[in-house]
Amino acid sequence: EVQLVESGGGLVQPGGSLRLSCATSGFIFSNYDMIWVRQAPGKGLEWVSTINIYDHTYYGDSVKGRFSISRDNAKNILYLQMNSLKTEDTAVYYCTTNPDPPYQPRGQGTQVTVSS
């Protein structure tokens, strides 16, 4: 059974940083592209970033230059380093193996709140 468990969210001031983690199990992590998506209050799911099996990385325009995705294939963990956070980054962040909506399966999510 595929399991994805996000963590690392919290409350941070604008301009601050957070590092999200996604612990995975139930599949061969190194064989899958991995994706971060997010859902802001009252909005649909938004693609944030992808890292493929070759460690090539891709970012949405809204986070490019501020977020950095990485993976540890030895530990089966996906990361998202978020810097220069803005209030509009407030959302629940999910990891998934599926690059297409509705981005299933995904974990329970981790809440990121950017506020002063």
What does this structure look like?
With 116 residues, this protein is mainly β. It is built from no helices and ten strands. A six-stranded mixed β-sheet has the order 2-10-9-4-5-6, with no helix packed on it. Strand 7 and strand 8 (77-82) form a beta hairpin.
Question: What is this entry, summarized?
Answer:
This protein is mainly β. The chain contains no helices and ten strands.
Jot down its keywords.
116 residues, mainly beta, six-stranded mixed beta sheet, 0% helix, globular
DSSP helix fraction:
under 10%
Spans where pLDDT lies below 50 across 5 or more residues: none
Number of helices: 0
β-sheet strand percentage: over 45%
Instruction: Give the SSE order as H and E letters.
Output: EEEEEEEEEE
Distance between the termini: 40 Å
Q: Shape, please?
A: globular
How are the strands of the largest sheet arranged? Answer: 2-10-9-4-5-6
Instruction: Find the structural class using helix and strand composition.
Output: mainly beta
Task: Please state the CA-atom Rg, rounded to the nearest Å.
Answer: 13 Å
Query: Average pLDDT, to the nearest integer?
Result: 97
Could you give a short account of the major beta sheet? 6 strands, mixed
Could you tell me the number of beta strands?
Answer: 10
